[in-house]
Design brief:
The protein is an alpha/beta fold. It contains 17 helices and 11 strands. The protein folds into 3 domains: about 220 residues, Rossmann fold (3-Layer(aba) Sandwich), CATH 3.40.50; about 80 residues, Ubiquitin-like (UB roll) (Roll); about 100 residues, NADH-ubiquinone oxidoreductase 51kDa subunit, iron-sulphur binding domain (de novo design (two linked rop proteins), Up-down Bundle), CATH 1.20.1440.230. Helices cover about 40% and strands about 15% of the residues. The chain is globular, with a radius of gyration of 22 Å.
Length: about 425
């Protein structure tokens, strides 16, 4: 027998849902005053709220990058045998993204509610909060929030934190499990997948912290409420990180399907003429500005035109910058983030980075472009994890988007813009300086 969750406060209408007006860190008291107490998904007498069914009807997709249906993962873990574990992935290895850090430091109890509710729904006895070991602010905020919750005795499951190395691949699902199990934070070969055998051999549900924040609201206000915003095929909202030539870079919440031009307008508009947009972060895709303004943002919407929404990054590249140089910097970074466990990563990505450096310098441009196109076709689908596939998607989109620039580098050599300081953030002192709002 199932029953529905009854909301104790009025459901918020319109935007924002997640990115509320929070001064500093929202305390447990303020969180409860805003949303009411965390609902219970089981009565302890054989009756339970079908939270997984509610999530399935909501159409919630993962907000960590892949856009995988959340309920499908939850069903897989709930159907497993023996003890189960939930991992809240807050590692945010994507240098161009700031959304997870904002949630963790501003609305930690919304994330922790979602993790606790997910654990109850799949019958897990433990929740692990995975954070970047160098993100001291998020780690301290979550530690304080857990102290508040333990004092209030509101979580029926054990919640603990783990610190992850600051590496791009550390947040990959199998790498997370391997680290929690005492190994290196490197992807492992699958199957088995975490939902089959994860932490200490237990069925493990891994969800991004934004996904869990949405789940906490869906548990309170229901599937129909969640679907009031977004599209029919991809309902709800998402937090995007805006960077580059925009008046107010930082994080903002949008309804899925919002055209890119409206998202930029909400951030004060562009500060310079825009040459191209990078969507989806460093596993994402470049798009020429003239074809991008009216594109609706979302996994399914951008996927229809061969682009990626990924973790919700939107970076506006000004016309005065060199897209090839920016791509080369990121490609070199991604090559350095390799786990070194397979040929496509250990040899393919550095070779592509070398070829891009040659193109930026105006040397053997056509030859190197041909090599990159050949190598990307050879690497596709052959890596031990998703790093090679994500990297070559990013690079291949640059070759297509910046085709006129390739021709100019071939005929005139290196452009002056290629010698400018890089714009895309990397964990080298240049990035992660966001004016959050």
């Amino acid at each position: 027998m199932t029953r529905t969750v009854e909301a104790l406060v009025a459901a918020p209408s319109g935007l924002p849902r997640l990115v509320a007006d929070v001064s500093g860190t929202e305390s447990l008291i303020a969180h409860t005053e805003r949303l009411g107490v965390m609902p219970r998904v089981s009565s302890g007498r054989g009756r339970s709220v079908d939270l997984i069914g509610i999530v399935e009807r909501s159409g919630l997709r993962g907000r960590g990058g892949s856009g995988f249906p959340t309920a499908t993962k939850m069903h897989a873990v709930a159907d497993g045998r023996g003890p189960r574990v939930v991992i809240a992935n807050g590692s945010e290895g994507e240098p161009a993204s700031a959304k997870d850090a904002w949630l963790l430091t501003s609305r930690p109890h919304l994330v922790l509610d979602g993790a606790s509710l997910a654990a109850q729904a799949v019958n897990a006895s433990e929740v692990v909060i995975a954070l970047d070991r160098h993100d001291g602010r998020a780690r301290a905020t979550i530690a304080r929030a857990l102290e508040e919750r333990r004092a209030a005795r509101i979580d029926p499951v054990r919640i603990r934190g783990v610190d992850l190395p600051s590496r791009y691949v550390a947040g990959e699902e199998s790498a997370l499990v391997h680290w929690v199990n005492g190994g290196e934070a490197k992807p492992t070969f699958v199957p088995p997948r975490p939902f089959e055998r994860g932490v200490r051999g237990r069925a493990t549900l891994i969800q991004n912290v934004e996904t869990l924040a949405h789940l906490a609201l869906i548990a309170r206000f229901g599937a129909d409420w969640f679907r009031e915003l977004g599209t029919i095929t991809e309902p709800g909202t998402a937090i995007v990180t805006l960077g580059g030539a925009v008046a107010r870079p930082g994080v903002c919440e949008i309804a899925i399907g919002t055209p890119l031009r409206d998202v930029l307008a909400a951030a004060g508009g562009p500060t310079e003429d825009i040459a191209a947009f990078l969507t989806g972060g460093y596993f994402g895709t470049w798009i020429r500005a003239e074809t991008a303004w009216d594109l609706p943002l979302g996994h399914l919407e951008l996927g229809r035109v061969g682009a990626a929404f990924g973790c919700g990054v939107v970076f506006a590249l000004p016309t005065g910058a060199c897209g090839l140089a920016e791509t080369a910097r990121v490609a070199r970074y991604l090559a350095g983030e390799s786990a070194g466990q397979c040929g496509p990563c250990a040899y393919g990505l550095p070779a592509i980075a070398d070829a891009l450096d040659s193109i930026v310098a105006g040397r053997q441009v056509k030859h190197m472009t041909g090599l990159i196109r050949r190598w990307t076709s050879q690497i596709a689908g052959r890596g031990a994890c998703h790093l090679p596939d994500g990297a070559i998607r990013f690079v291949a989109s640059a070759l297509d988007t910046f085709a006129p620039e390739l021709e100019r580098h071939h005929s005139r050599g290196a452009c002056a813009s290629a010698r400018r300081r890089g714009l895309l953030p990397l964990p080298d002192g240049d990035g992660r300086e966001w004016g959050w709002r």
